[in-house]
Design brief:
It is built from 2 helices and 11 strands. The protein is mainly β. The chain has a single domain, classed as OB fold (Dihydrolipoamide Acetyltransferase, E2P) (Beta Barrel), CATH 2.40.50. Strands 1, 2, 3, 6, 9, 10 and 11 form a 7-stranded mixed beta sheet that branches. The chain has a 4-stranded antiparallel beta sheet with strand order 4-5-8-7, with no helix packed on it. A hairpin with a 4-residue loop joins strand 10 and strand 11. The longest helix is centred in the middle third of the chain and has 17 residues. The chain starts with 5 loop residues before the first strand and ends with a strand.
């Protein structure tokens, strides 16, 4: 699907007005669509650069929150990255409408791509399908796997307060496999 014509559907103009009235509304999200206005489906696969699913806690006291992610080793010139590069170029056009000082948050860091795994509202399950029985309390089973395949969507976020923007990946399906499988 890398050759599909992509577009970003954004309400950044309206969101800027909202932000002007209420500084707590500083994040604007934009959907990535194909020319037919259907969600763009992204497929990525590669070697895991994390020991399975990583959990990171942040916040203080009752405000503590745990986030979960998995990392994939991905070379900068990999054909799998081309759709993300195209999305980043489209996002820059939208970001320039906000401010020429908008700074892009790189999605690829040291040949690693991290995919955040969202949870349901009760934090009982991940909001994506998987070939393994995993949930936020039982995810260590992924530690013995070498590869991961991601199927999902991408969206663009704009932080109107900090003048940053980037690409967020939304997993629909995550499959883990061992070397040689």
């Amino acid at each position: 699907m890398a050759s599909a014509s992509l577009m970003i559907k954004s309400n950044v103009s309206k969101d800027l007005i909202k932000f002007g009235k209420d500084s707590t509304k500083f994040i604007s999200m934009a959907k990535v669509r194909t020319s037919g206005d259907t969600p763009f489906q992204l497929l990525l696969s590669g070697e895991m650069c994390t020991a399975g699913i990583n959990a990171m806690e942040f916040g203080v006291g009752k405000q503590k929150k745990t986030t979960y992610s998995v990392g994939i080793t991905m070379e900068e010139d990999s054909p799998q990255i081309h759709p993300l590069i195209q999305i980043a170029a489209l996002a820059k056009i939208e970001a320039d409408k906000i401010s020429p000082e908008m700074e892009f948050n790189e999605f690829l860091k040291d040949d690693k791509l991290f995919i955040k795994l969202r949870t349901d509202a009760q934090n009982r399950s991940f909001a994506c399908k998987s070939n393994l029985k995993i949930d936020p309390k039982k995810y260590s089973d992924t530690n013995t796997y070498d590869n991961v395949a991601f199927t999902g969507e991408a969206q663009v976020w704009f932080n109107l307060e900090d003048l940053k923007y980037g690409i967020s990946l939304i997993p629909k399906k995550i499959e883990f496999s061992k070397e040689g499988e």
